[in-house]
Amino acid sequence: MNEFRKQLRDIAKGMDYPPTPDIAGFVSARLRSLPAPSGRGDRGEGRPRLISRTLTWSLTIALILLLSLLLIPPARAAILEFIQIGIVRIFPQSAQPTAEPVQPAVPEIEAPVTATPASSQSFFESIAGETTLEEAQKLVAYPILLPAYPPDLGKPDYVYIQEADGDMTILVWVDAQNPEEVQMSLHFIPMGSWAIKKVAPTVIQETSVNGQRAIWAVGPYPLRFSDDSLEITRLVEGNVLIWERDGITCRLETDLPLEEAIKIAESLEPIP
Question: Angle CA(94)–CA(98)–CA(102) in degrees, nearest 5?
Fold first, then answer.
Protein backbone atom coordinates (compact mmCIF):
# COMPACT_ATOMS: atom_id res chain seq x y z
CA MET A 1 0.00 0.00 0.00
CA ASN A 2 1.45 3.31 -0.99
CA GLU A 3 1.57 6.38 1.23
CA PHE A 4 -1.35 8.07 -0.52
CA ARG A 5 -3.74 5.14 0.08
CA LYS A 6 -2.59 4.90 3.68
CA GLN A 7 -3.35 8.59 4.22
CA LEU A 8 -6.84 8.22 2.75
CA ARG A 9 -7.59 5.19 4.90
CA ASP A 10 -6.38 6.96 8.03
CA ILE A 11 -8.58 9.94 7.18
CA ALA A 12 -11.57 7.70 6.49
CA LYS A 13 -11.25 6.02 9.90
CA GLY A 14 -11.68 9.36 11.66
CA MET A 15 -14.69 10.53 9.65
CA ASP A 16 -18.27 10.63 10.90
CA TYR A 17 -20.13 9.04 8.00
CA PRO A 18 -23.81 9.87 7.45
CA PRO A 19 -26.24 7.01 8.18
CA THR A 20 -26.68 4.63 5.28
CA PRO A 21 -29.98 5.36 3.52
CA ASP A 22 -32.60 2.60 3.62
CA ILE A 23 -32.39 1.97 -0.09
CA ALA A 24 -34.10 -1.42 0.16
CA GLY A 25 -37.02 0.10 2.07
CA PHE A 26 -37.27 2.94 -0.39
CA VAL A 27 -37.31 0.56 -3.35
CA SER A 28 -39.94 -1.67 -1.70
CA ALA A 29 -42.18 1.31 -0.95
CA ARG A 30 -41.73 2.53 -4.49
CA LEU A 31 -42.70 -0.85 -5.91
CA ARG A 32 -45.81 -1.00 -3.73
CA SER A 33 -46.87 2.47 -4.88
CA LEU A 34 -46.62 1.62 -8.58
CA PRO A 35 -49.95 0.85 -10.27
CA ALA A 36 -50.45 -2.68 -11.47
CA PRO A 37 -49.74 -3.12 -15.19
CA SER A 38 -52.92 -2.99 -17.28
CA GLY A 39 -51.69 -5.32 -19.95
CA ARG A 40 -48.77 -7.21 -21.42
CA GLY A 41 -47.54 -4.19 -23.35
CA ASP A 42 -47.21 -2.14 -20.11
CA ARG A 43 -45.22 -4.76 -18.19
CA GLY A 44 -41.84 -3.00 -18.35
CA GLU A 45 -43.09 0.59 -18.33
CA GLY A 46 -42.07 1.46 -14.77
CA ARG A 47 -38.74 -0.37 -14.77
CA PRO A 48 -36.48 2.29 -16.35
CA ARG A 49 -37.82 4.89 -13.91
CA LEU A 50 -37.05 2.61 -10.95
CA ILE A 51 -33.52 1.87 -12.18
CA SER A 52 -32.93 5.56 -12.77
CA ARG A 53 -33.98 6.48 -9.21
CA THR A 54 -31.82 3.73 -7.69
CA LEU A 55 -28.81 4.82 -9.74
CA THR A 56 -29.44 8.42 -8.68
CA TRP A 57 -29.36 7.40 -5.00
CA SER A 58 -26.10 5.48 -5.49
CA LEU A 59 -24.42 8.37 -7.27
CA THR A 60 -25.66 10.79 -4.62
CA ILE A 61 -24.13 8.71 -1.82
CA ALA A 62 -20.79 8.46 -3.68
CA LEU A 63 -20.81 12.22 -4.27
CA ILE A 64 -21.49 12.91 -0.59
CA LEU A 65 -18.53 10.73 0.44
CA LEU A 66 -16.22 12.46 -2.05
CA LEU A 67 -17.34 15.92 -0.93
CA SER A 68 -16.80 14.92 2.69
CA LEU A 69 -13.20 14.01 1.89
CA LEU A 70 -12.68 17.27 0.03
CA LEU A 71 -13.82 19.23 3.10
CA ILE A 72 -10.81 17.89 5.00
CA PRO A 73 -7.72 19.94 3.99
CA PRO A 74 -5.12 17.12 4.11
CA ALA A 75 -7.33 14.81 2.08
CA ARG A 76 -8.21 17.54 -0.40
CA ALA A 77 -4.53 18.33 -0.92
CA ALA A 78 -3.65 14.66 -1.42
CA ILE A 79 -6.47 14.12 -3.92
CA LEU A 80 -6.08 17.28 -5.98
CA GLU A 81 -2.36 17.98 -5.90
CA PHE A 82 0.38 15.94 -7.51
CA ILE A 83 3.30 16.71 -9.77
CA GLN A 84 3.81 14.79 -13.00
CA ILE A 85 7.28 15.22 -14.54
CA GLY A 86 7.95 12.66 -17.26
CA ILE A 87 7.61 9.26 -15.61
CA VAL A 88 7.67 10.75 -12.13
CA ARG A 89 4.41 11.36 -10.25
CA ILE A 90 5.03 12.98 -6.88
CA PHE A 91 2.61 14.07 -4.17
CA PRO A 92 4.18 17.26 -2.78
CA GLN A 93 5.09 17.47 0.88
CA SER A 94 6.75 20.23 2.79
CA ALA A 95 10.47 19.58 3.12
CA GLN A 96 13.72 21.30 3.92
CA PRO A 97 16.73 20.96 1.58
CA THR A 98 18.68 19.16 4.28
CA ALA A 99 15.91 16.75 5.21
CA GLU A 100 16.51 13.06 4.70
CA PRO A 101 13.71 11.74 2.44
CA VAL A 102 11.57 8.76 3.34
CA GLN A 103 12.49 5.85 1.13
CA PRO A 104 9.89 3.31 -0.02
CA ALA A 105 10.94 -0.31 -0.37
CA VAL A 106 12.66 -1.34 -3.59
CA PRO A 107 12.95 -4.98 -4.71
CA GLU A 108 16.32 -6.71 -4.43
CA ILE A 109 18.00 -3.99 -2.40
CA GLU A 110 21.03 -5.41 -0.65
CA ALA A 111 22.52 -2.33 0.98
CA PRO A 112 21.31 0.80 2.79
CA VAL A 113 21.43 4.35 1.45
CA THR A 114 25.00 5.47 0.96
CA ALA A 115 26.91 8.40 -0.43
CA THR A 116 29.90 7.98 -2.74
CA PRO A 117 32.46 5.80 -0.89
CA ALA A 118 35.91 7.14 -0.09
CA SER A 119 37.58 4.81 -2.56
CA SER A 120 36.34 6.57 -5.67
CA GLN A 121 38.21 4.46 -8.22
CA SER A 122 36.87 1.13 -6.99
CA PHE A 123 33.42 2.66 -6.61
CA PHE A 124 33.25 3.87 -10.21
CA GLU A 125 34.57 0.56 -11.48
CA SER A 126 31.99 -1.33 -9.45
CA ILE A 127 29.00 0.42 -11.04
CA ALA A 128 27.36 -1.79 -13.65
CA GLY A 129 27.18 -0.93 -17.33
CA GLU A 130 30.29 1.21 -17.82
CA THR A 131 30.86 2.12 -21.45
CA THR A 132 32.06 4.97 -23.65
CA LEU A 133 30.02 7.94 -24.78
CA GLU A 134 30.20 6.81 -28.40
CA GLU A 135 29.07 3.26 -27.57
CA ALA A 136 26.31 4.53 -25.30
CA GLN A 137 24.79 6.55 -28.12
CA LYS A 138 24.67 3.39 -30.25
CA LEU A 139 23.02 1.37 -27.48
CA VAL A 140 20.11 3.64 -26.59
CA ALA A 141 17.14 4.64 -28.75
CA TYR A 142 17.20 8.30 -27.73
CA PRO A 143 19.81 11.04 -28.25
CA ILE A 144 22.28 11.54 -25.41
CA LEU A 145 22.68 15.25 -24.74
CA LEU A 146 25.63 17.05 -23.16
CA PRO A 147 25.62 20.35 -21.25
CA ALA A 148 27.24 23.30 -23.01
CA TYR A 149 27.31 25.15 -19.68
CA PRO A 150 29.60 25.73 -17.94
CA PRO A 151 31.83 26.13 -21.03
CA ASP A 152 34.78 24.32 -19.45
CA LEU A 153 32.76 21.30 -18.29
CA GLY A 154 33.82 19.00 -21.12
CA LYS A 155 32.69 15.42 -21.70
CA PRO A 156 31.72 13.15 -18.79
CA ASP A 157 34.44 11.18 -17.04
CA TYR A 158 32.25 8.07 -16.70
CA VAL A 159 29.35 6.78 -18.78
CA TYR A 160 27.00 3.94 -17.79
CA ILE A 161 24.03 2.23 -19.42
CA GLN A 162 21.80 0.33 -16.99
CA GLU A 163 18.69 -1.68 -17.79
CA ALA A 164 15.69 -0.55 -15.72
CA ASP A 165 12.72 -1.53 -17.91
CA GLY A 166 14.45 0.57 -20.55
CA ASP A 167 18.05 1.66 -21.08
CA MET A 168 18.94 4.37 -18.56
CA THR A 169 22.02 6.48 -19.30
CA ILE A 170 24.13 7.88 -16.45
CA LEU A 171 26.81 10.51 -17.13
CA VAL A 172 29.25 11.37 -14.35
CA TRP A 173 31.67 14.30 -14.06
CA VAL A 174 34.29 14.26 -11.29
CA ASP A 175 36.07 17.20 -9.69
CA ALA A 176 39.27 17.96 -11.63
CA GLN A 177 41.07 18.86 -8.40
CA ASN A 178 39.69 15.87 -6.52
CA PRO A 179 38.84 12.93 -8.80
CA GLU A 180 37.46 11.02 -5.83
CA GLU A 181 34.55 13.46 -5.65
CA VAL A 182 31.63 13.56 -8.09
CA GLN A 183 30.96 17.06 -9.36
CA MET A 184 27.73 16.31 -11.22
CA SER A 185 25.69 13.45 -12.64
CA LEU A 186 23.08 13.46 -15.38
CA HIS A 187 20.56 10.66 -15.94
CA PHE A 188 18.41 10.05 -19.02
CA ILE A 189 15.49 7.78 -18.12
CA PRO A 190 13.08 6.45 -20.80
CA MET A 191 9.33 6.09 -20.41
CA GLY A 192 8.25 2.99 -18.49
CA SER A 193 11.40 2.77 -16.38
CA TRP A 194 11.09 2.12 -12.64
CA ALA A 195 14.34 4.00 -11.89
CA ILE A 196 12.57 6.97 -10.30
CA LYS A 197 9.12 5.51 -9.66
CA LYS A 198 10.44 3.15 -6.98
CA VAL A 199 12.01 5.90 -4.88
CA ALA A 200 10.11 9.16 -5.22
CA PRO A 201 12.21 12.24 -4.41
CA THR A 202 11.11 14.83 -1.87
CA VAL A 203 10.07 18.04 -3.61
CA ILE A 204 11.61 21.29 -2.42
CA GLN A 205 10.01 23.56 -5.00
CA GLU A 206 8.57 23.67 -8.51
CA THR A 207 10.41 25.46 -11.29
CA SER A 208 10.79 25.23 -15.08
CA VAL A 209 13.37 24.24 -17.69
CA ASN A 210 12.97 25.75 -21.16
CA GLY A 211 9.42 26.70 -20.20
CA GLN A 212 8.53 23.13 -19.19
CA ARG A 213 7.51 22.14 -15.69
CA ALA A 214 10.35 20.87 -13.49
CA ILE A 215 10.99 20.10 -9.83
CA TRP A 216 13.92 20.87 -7.55
CA ALA A 217 14.13 17.98 -5.13
CA VAL A 218 16.31 15.90 -2.86
CA GLY A 219 16.66 12.16 -2.55
CA PRO A 220 18.59 9.03 -3.56
CA TYR A 221 17.83 6.61 -6.38
CA PRO A 222 18.49 2.97 -7.37
CA LEU A 223 21.94 2.24 -8.77
CA ARG A 224 22.97 -1.20 -10.00
CA PHE A 225 26.47 -2.57 -9.42
CA SER A 226 28.55 -5.09 -11.31
CA ASP A 227 27.77 -7.84 -8.79
CA ASP A 228 24.08 -7.37 -9.77
CA SER A 229 23.23 -5.80 -6.42
CA LEU A 230 21.00 -2.75 -6.23
CA GLU A 231 21.65 0.13 -3.85
CA ILE A 232 19.66 3.22 -2.98
CA THR A 233 22.36 5.84 -3.18
CA ARG A 234 23.37 9.21 -4.56
CA LEU A 235 26.57 10.35 -6.21
CA VAL A 236 26.42 13.97 -5.07
CA GLU A 237 25.54 15.34 -1.64
CA GLY A 238 23.23 17.95 -3.08
CA ASN A 239 19.89 18.44 -4.80
CA VAL A 240 18.41 17.16 -8.02
CA LEU A 241 16.62 18.89 -10.89
CA ILE A 242 14.06 16.71 -12.69
CA TRP A 243 12.36 17.61 -15.96
CA GLU A 244 11.16 16.02 -19.20
CA ARG A 245 12.52 16.53 -22.68
CA ASP A 246 11.15 14.78 -25.77
CA GLY A 247 9.62 11.97 -23.73
CA ILE A 248 12.80 11.32 -21.72
CA THR A 249 12.99 12.14 -18.03
CA CYS A 250 16.19 14.01 -17.20
CA ARG A 251 17.70 14.01 -13.71
CA LEU A 252 20.55 16.42 -12.94
CA GLU A 253 22.28 15.83 -9.61
CA THR A 254 24.49 18.66 -8.34
CA ASP A 255 25.54 20.65 -5.28
CA LEU A 256 25.15 23.90 -7.24
CA PRO A 257 22.27 26.30 -6.50
CA LEU A 258 19.01 26.00 -8.43
CA GLU A 259 19.78 28.89 -10.79
CA GLU A 260 23.01 27.23 -11.96
CA ALA A 261 21.32 23.83 -12.31
CA ILE A 262 18.67 25.37 -14.58
CA LYS A 263 21.37 26.95 -16.75
CA ILE A 264 23.02 23.54 -17.14
CA ALA A 265 19.70 21.85 -17.95
CA GLU A 266 18.78 24.45 -20.55
CA SER A 267 22.19 24.16 -22.23
CA LEU A 268 21.82 20.48 -23.19
CA GLU A 269 22.61 19.81 -26.83
CA PRO A 270 23.36 16.75 -29.02
CA ILE A 271 26.84 15.26 -28.99
CA PRO A 272 28.90 17.15 -31.61
Answer: 60
214, 241 Cβ separation under 8 angstroms: yes
pTM (two decimals) = 0.59
> Which residues fall within 8 angstroms of residue 100, CB to CB, at 6 or more apart?
none
- Per residue in 30-68, pLDDT (tens digit) is 667 766 655 554 444 555 555 566 777 777 777 777 666
Q: Which is higher by pLDDT, 166 or 87?
A: 166
Q: Which of helix, strand or coil describes residue 23?
A: helix
pLDDT-based confidence at residue 132 (cuts at 50, 70, 90): very high
> What is the phi/psi pair of residue 259, to 5°?
-60, -40
Residue 194 is which amino acid? W
What φ, ψ does residue 134 adopt, rounded to 5°? -65, -45
Phi, then psi, of 32 in degrees rounded to 5: -65, -30
How many angstroms separate the first and last alpha carbons of the chain? 46
Please tell me the distance from the alpha carbon of residue 23 to that of residue 31, in angstroms, as a whole number.
12
Percentage of the chain modeled with pLDDT above 70: 58
CB contact set of 127 (below 8 Å; sequence gap of 6+)? 158, 160, 170, 223, 224, 225, 226
* SS3 at position 12: helix
Range of lowest pLDDT (93-97, 99-103, 155-159, 217-221): 99-103
Q: Which residues lie closer than 8 Å to 65 by C-beta, 6 or more apart? A: 17
Helix (H) or strand (E) holding 158: strand 158-163
Point out which residues pair with 207 in neighbouring strands.
214
